[in-house]
Amino acid sequence: MPANYGLLVQRKEFLLKIVEIAKKYGTLVVFDEVISGFRTGFQGMSGLLGIRPDLVTYGKIIGGGFPVGCYAGRKDLLDLVAPSGPVYQAGTLSANPFGMRAGLVTLKKAERDSIYSVLEARTKTFADGMVKLLNGKTDREWEAVTHSSLFWFRKKTQQAVRRIDQIPEGHKEGFAKVFHVLLKNGIYLAPSGYEVGFLSWAHNDSVIAKTLEIADKAFKGL
């Protein structure tokens, strides 16, 4: 799920076809779940799609706010990594106890509080609320693309945007106006119109309601 230049949600059929081609030619299937892993659920996008990759990378959430990276995969592939195999791998923060502890506590809390369905609903409430307030205030009609706790605002289109060249013209400039008027009123979104946003467990219903209240007043300055 590309999320570094807009939230470009891909069709399951498209991804399954890529996996089919990779298997046909003996190519490893690698899923980058640094953003989506443990954000879309405990199984990540691969689990939601029913795809079992050969290798998968994780980060961010599994560190509980500390810098971290992780990879997992087939046993025969991981056995190639030292000390079991010939592929050397090391890192300055490998197995850092603070990051590992913070990540473990984060994942335990996510499991205990069953956060994913609640976060998805809150994200939908926030994103749809922002779009409702935005529309009619600028020279374009906006829409929100959401998935789990991820959101992205862009100009409304007739069809889903799945590639960067399908992002509507003038998106960067249009989002910049929204970003700055919100920033002046104490709401900080990611400064790039191509970067997605995330809701955390700390963004409860009262925080979302207060944010929408402030945004409503802020958008009058557009």
Automatic annotation (TrEMBL):
Cofactor requirements of the protein: pyridoxal 5'-phosphate
Domain of life: Bacteria
Ranges in coiled-coil conformation: none
One Pfam family cited in the UniProt record for this chain: Aminotran_3
Keywords from the named record: Aminotransferase, Pyridoxal phosphate, Transferase
GO MF terms held by the record: pyridoxal phosphate binding; transaminase activity
Protein name stated in the entry: Aminotransferase, class III domain protein
Keyword Transferase: yes
